[in-house]
User: Fold this.
Amino acid sequence: MVNSAERSADNAWSDAALHAAPYPVLVADPVGTVRRANEAFGLLVPDAVEGSALCEVLPDWLLLAHDRLSAAPAPHAPPPRGEVAGRSFEAHATRLPEGEVVWWLTDDTDVRLAERRLLQERNRTAFLARASNELLSSLNLDRCMEVAGRLAAAHLADAAVVIAPPRGRALSVVSADGTGAHSRQLTGVAPESVPGLAEALRGFPPVPSRWIDPAAAPEWLVPEDFGPVGAMVVTPLPGHGVPAGALVLLRRAHHAAFSESEESFARLFAARAGAAMSAARLYAEQAQITETLMRELLPPRVGQVGGVEFAARYRAAKDGERVGGDFYDIHPAAAPQDESLVVLGDVCGKGLDAAVLTGKIRNTLHALLPLSGDHVRMLRLLNGALLSSHHTRFATLVMASARRRADRVELRVTCAGHPAPLVVRADGRVAEVETHGNLVGVLPEIDAVTAPLILAPGESLVLFTDGITESKGGPLGDELFGDARLRRALAHCAGMPAEAVAEHVQMLATEWVGVNKHDDMAVVTVTAPRGSSRRAPGGTPTEGHGA
Amino acid sequence: MTDPSPARILHLSSTAVGPDVLRITVRGELDVDSAAEFQDAVTEHLAARSGLRALRVDCGGLVLCDSMGLSALLMVHRRTTALGVSLHLEERPPALDRLLAVTGTLDHLTAPPAAAASTPPSS
Assistant:
């Protein structure tokens, strides 16, 4: 038994402990009223004075927890959480022997905030990783813009507009409003009509995101049926040193404006979208350059010109470089009594450098055609045009001027650092044409010897690149096709038309390399037609294969 | 045939034969993949030694030289000529000789410096 003196001493002690407690504390008695509340609790809930009904003063979540506690005590349940006076609390209950319950509230607002931020950061990181994957999955610029617009509308704002740097007068725009993305080409729209857009599209110098007054936004910038715009921000899309475009984010009027953290997150997204878009643009440009070059470099169609048969075969190396180093051209005679000029060449190296040099050579030779009566002079002029102090890339080539004289073909053949062409006689003899000279493009002075040659009907001149003779293959896979094998093969070609000779050489070399890696292979044949083909001189190229 | 074997990889070693003569021994393939490396290495040697009179390139171990390899040799020749260094391509395998002969570069690359004192174009 405890006497009343002790009891009041107890109360005094517990009162002191209660008030000194660093947490808001409330003591509820079994009948549902406030028995005690310390000062800290009073600051949160001023109405919680002694004797007031719990149901009138406690926040709902705490009242609910209190009722549950007295109904069915669950010792291992997580402590209830809720908000009081704008802060977040965890409530811990202690039951006293006489049925009273003490509620201790611990403030976990900062913990909750940190947890929320952590979750947000995790979500953002996951989103950025997913966005990068999606953005980089296509090298198509339009597709890239659509993905960027859709992702931005779904995760960063209510609607997003992706704008590519202008090409000519048209502005390419993708708008996305959460229901999907659609693209438009806008002509006659000036980027200057949106404050900050022109600067963002220029890409340099870098500009920060810029808020715009929604009222100043032109109509084309706001997706249809979007409603009133509450906030709008223009963010540049940084590319790999090239302007990639701009991202405009829009929020509806009733939504909160963009916070600072949302804005910096939008910049992180913009960096990824910009990188993907500029990669797509660079790729598109590269593909276009290659396509243009390829179109330029496509071997010409050949056939019979002025009573002389021409045929050609070309097989590009299969190692991924689309533009190889071999080329040929046939310039038909302007008049029946004139010469046609055929050129076969091999540029050192591969890829863009080789393609550029090839183009230069072909154009220069074309321009020098009026001088083709003197091959050596033509080659010297070409050599001078190609010389560069920056590199020693060169080309080897062989040229042949041909014209029909009665049933024969008269030729002048000149080699510039190139394997000498072979002549296939009517009786099956195969001989090297005796011409030689320096390669073009590196040496300050060059020289060459032009060989005259006459083909009787059924005889052929065969020009080839070393891709044929140096192709490796055969039964063991490592043997050179070689000059001797080529000569033996050509010995069987006596009397054949130009097309058949070219086809035969190409076929043998192709069979020889099999699946092996090989260099470009080109072969051009010039043939004096046999008696039966009495075509009128002066015809134009009619048939044949380009590649 | 496309296996990378040690014999195919370009290997360079250099020895000072005298105070003003450097020998560079080349082994392996001088081709589209290794031409730039060869050119850079020789250029560095040339830059590192002033007063050099002769550069002797021992080609005995050269198993292949393609058009890019020849381009690199031509660039090396251009550099040595500009510096007044005489270039000697020694122990040339038959295949290299054939390449130089067909392309009409044998005389240019092996002529004594006085005859090859052609200055590179300055375009």
